[in-house]
Fold this sequence. Notes:
- With about 900 residues, this protein is an alpha+beta fold.
- It has five domains: about 1-30 and about 615-740, Immunoglobulins (Immunoglobulin-like); about 50-130, Alpha-Beta Plaits, CATH 3.30.70.1510; about 135-360 and about 495-615, 3-Layer(aba) Sandwich (Rossmann fold); about 360-495, Glucose Oxidase, domain 1, CATH 3.50.30.30; about 760-910, no CATH class.
- It starts with 9 loop residues before the first helix and ends with a strand.
Amino acid sequence: xxxxxxxxxxxxxxxxxxxxxxxxxxxxxxxxxxxxxxxxxxxxxxxxxxxxxxxxxxxxxxxxxxxxxxxxxxxxxxxxxxxxxxxxxxxxxxxxxxxxxxxxxxxxxxxxxxxxxxxxxxxxxxxxxxxxxxxxxxxxxxxxxxxxxxxxxxxxxxxxxxxxxxxxxxxxxxxxxxxxxxxxxxxxxxxxxxxxxxxxxxxxxxxxxxxxxxxxxxxxxxxxxxxxxxxxxxxxxxxxxxxxxxxxxxxxxxxxxxxxxxxxxxxxxxxxxxxxxxxxxxxxxxxxxxxxxxxxxxxxxxxxxxxxxxxxxxxxxxxxxxxxxxxxxxxxxxxxxxxxxxxxxxxxxxxxxxxxxxxxxxxxxxxxxxxxxxxxxxxxxxxxxxxxxxxxxxxxxxxxxxxxxxxxxxxxxxxxxxxxxxxxxxxxxxxxxxxxxxxxxxxxxxxxxxxxxxxxxxxxxxxxxxxxxxxxxxxxxxxxxxxxxxxxxxxxxxxxxxxxxxxxxxxxxxxxxxxxxxxxxxxxxxxxxxxxxxxxxxxxxxxxxxxxxxxxxxxxxxxxxxxxxxxxxxxxxxxxxxxxxxxxxxxxxxxxxxxxxxxxxxxxxxxxxxxxxxxxxxxxxxxxxxxxxxxxxxxxxxxxxxxxxxxxxxxxxxxxxxxxxxxxxxxxxxxxxxxxxxxxxxxxxxxxxxxxxxxxxxxxxxxxxxxxxxxxxxxxxxxxxxxxxxxxxxxxxxxxxxxxxxxxxxxxxxxxxxxxxxxxxxxxxxxxxxxxxxxxxxxxxxxxxxxxxxxxxxxxxxxxxxxxxxxxxxxxxxxxxxxxxxxxxxxxxxxxxxxxxxxxxxxxxxxxxxxxxxxxxxxxxxxxxxxxxxxxxxxxxxxxxxxxxxxxxxxxxxxxxxxxxxxxxxxxxxxx
Length: 912
């Protein structure tokens, strides 16, 4: 099965593809391809995942689309008046007008029903809470990452450094005292030496103490803005360094992708914890006002992957205003497909996946003059920096559960154990209990690994992880084998270098758009951090991949002469990057020769040098196949930017797909090939000098059945006949009836609980700010008093709740109140019109885990319209009711595309 690109005719390409699919008929059952390292078991814990923060969208388009500020302000005043008239209270957080028209509010979820039904309200959406990424403990060089994207070539050979381009960084702030970011190198806390020569704009929207995570002991959800976007966390300074640090590698500094850029710093995190979607939109509106050219957002609301969600729409509007928007796609790869988040899924946003760095800087010990790089495990004791000890092979070391016997006595020696079959903690405990003074665990797959003991064992004994190859080397030495600890580090080739990072999120977007768009190095990147934190450190994440692309965009804009890009130029950038990216082998087992999923890596690894030098561009830059059906024909337009004719031969590269569980998908080679060959309108295409040419590509859309949840993809390849630069266009689709994909599933919980959906009782929360509600799940019909009481500072509310697990994103979620006969309730007054809908929410995310659930509350009130048009919120009389929940499936248009659940009958019995 060839996966190398060759210049072949269209007929030959078809034959090669048909050969790939030999023996696989359309609608055949997908077959799984096993990775070298099994995926982690899915999290089945029953966990509430709701919020009391909501976006309220109003009717008119925002100011960037031409609506006057007077009209936008009038709509907000009308909304506030309508809410007051309907007797519903809320706390207003932000009001938006430039990029998105509406407000963000905090409201008791039981009161959300009234808000969503008020006149002038176009839609209601949840506000996501987004944690700041954590720092990891190993340290490679940013220098090696620059080489992976061609940024080093763009700087040293092509002569571009981003000069004249303004890059906004929305993050934890930026240490503008840092010398590599234009500061004077003097360490200051809460510096007010701002702006500077390089950090020319910015704002702190939240303050040091802000933390939107209600589960944190430092929970403080009230923004306290100030004019100085200094960084007390480190993440934003690290991201900014990747974009444009101008230090010297040889002197121990950091040099970013575009060291000539100037910055805008927009702080949306406190010193720790989380931020929220609405703070992000407020920051975007400042980016627009400050006339930035590029915005980097190393932030994403995982699982909310609707392009229509507010942060994604605001981002798209920012692109339409001439700002190139780049955003990380998320770090939720372990949580399955459709885990990519907004704003990275925006229709005009460049959503970025993470690849592992080619090298990793590790401490090492020596065995027979060979340096053995290692990673200390979390919860282990401190690692020595000197001393020589004997190391012995103890085997698997799973004594507690597997009945193993250690292969050697590790008393007063270092124990070498093999990874697999039991936990790191169990292996280390067995060796330590047998007298080991240190434990070394070798991998069972290529490369080193980050391991954790889960909990401390003795806080004294060091436990480290090494590669499979180094473990085999030690075992092959003649006994006795000595090892010597050192205080040194060295750059080691990473066996996962150039492959998608294990944490990088999967697409597609909810409406089957291709996401992510492109990838860049994000795993194990050393860059700048605040001076008080040591000036340099390492973080992994798509947070680190996104600024590689943002810096690359700055180089591209400079090379094109597109400083202050027009809207058309800002929109064109993503396609130029995608055309020249390089797809990578499957990270699960690269030796098999498969390309990784398009919905994991997008177009592939960024090659900014290729994007700058490419003689031809192709539009569109990606192709969405949608769901199963008739073969789909796409027209691609090639534009020649040179003075010479160029002819390209067309071919195709298949990529792996996924199928099965949303939360733990399996890889499969099933895909477009199973529906028949990919064909082209011509075997080759000549693109005239300074002109354009078109070619049609017809791709089958196979049907594996909705239940198999097959997502497939591949690449259309354009190979120039003069042996120049390859161009590619990725495509992806869903191999089944997308509306047959079940959403209201029962969930999988550990320990088992009655399946969702189900009626629940809301037993209260601490306060409106600290919204961490608790629930009970009665097994029989329930009577609710609808009373709210305060006990020991905790609010209790005896009201009905629908607890629902969503296995997939929902276009809307609607809760309707029914009478005991199952009919929507009607008004008890002929002069009033009663709305039986209790809740109506658009663009709802899926649950993050197989056991997660959302809760939809009803406080016993519905909105009624009086003869004069005034709307009021009124209590429904005591009696028997049911709640019906409806969810519309993505791309659904028919009544059959709505899934429905009706609760058991319950009784409202308010005390007299």
